Amino acid sequence: MTSRSNGEPLVRLSGVNKWFGELHVLQDIDLDIAAGEVLVVIGPSGSGKSTLCRAINRLEPIEKGEITIDGERLPEEGKELARLRADVGMVFQSFNLFAHKTILENVTLGPTKVRKKSKSDAEKRARELLDRVGVSAQAEKYPAQLSGGQQQRVAIARALAMEPKVMLFDEPTSALDPEMINEVLDVMVGLAKDGMTMVVVTHEMGFARRAANRVVFMDGGRIVESAEPETFFTNPRSDRAKDFLSKILTH
């Protein structure tokens, strides 16, 4: 793999720009993410955080710039995009599980259809992953029978089943009741400790402090600041970050 052998970043964004009509939502984004790095993206609403996350697997096409994953440029569309996208796991605010399939079927669908794994191999791996995220007892149930926290942990297991090189999390706890948030964050902290490359858009500052290697602060479609968590939270350089932190850390 290119990223392992020559020190190249696993994910690289170069001069990335994105518009929604007149709105310039990503402005000249340059960002390198190393293999095994946990990058947490924070910032006010409308700062471009989710768009940045979604651009990394082309859920949002970009107008200018280039994104590479493990040395390969992200294609515009077609089979090559599908192949590269399979290397990028994604966990959304909403769980997006198939309501008419069991939990086990939800987790085995991608590996059997896309990765062409045998049903038995896919099921064995799915059960291991469901155990890892703490919902192995729910394998034969349907999504509606699970709590929101359990469904989100299944969504993480489903993404992991594709053996991605990088995992993207777009505000994965924002739709959850407060008591369910930690059970999802604990799974994510475990992934971070295991060396999974992760890009996490979140409002959970405790997670950022505990698990991130680096915090990126966005505002107005730009990366304003990028620093290690301790540095960022104790001594932010920009007035905009100071203002943002003073509002969220005092509550």
UniProtKB/TrEMBL annotation:
A Pfam cross-reference name: ABC_tran
Enzyme class: translocase
Catalytic activity: a polar amino acid(out) + ATP + H2O = a polar amino acid(in) + ADP + phosphate + H(+)
Transmembrane segments: none
Annotated ABC transporter domain residues: 11-245
Record-linked SMART domains: AAA
Membrane topology, record value: Peripheral membrane protein
CDD domains: ABC_HisP_GlnQ (cd03262)
GO cellular component: plasma membrane
GO molecular function, one term: ATP hydrolysis activity
InterPro entries listed in its UniProt record: AAA+_ATPase, ABC_ATPase_HisP-typ, ABC_transporter-like_ATP-bd, ABC_transporter-like_CS, MetN_ABC_transporter-like, P-loop_NTPase
Compartment list: Cell membrane
Keywords: Amino-acid transport, ATP-binding, Cell membrane, Membrane, Nucleotide-binding, Transport
Entry EC no(s): 7.4.2.1
Protein's UniProt keywords contain Membrane: yes
Record-stated family: Belongs to the ABC transporter superfamily.
Stated name of the protein: ABC-type polar-amino-acid transporter
Source organism of the structure: Blastococcus xanthinilyticus
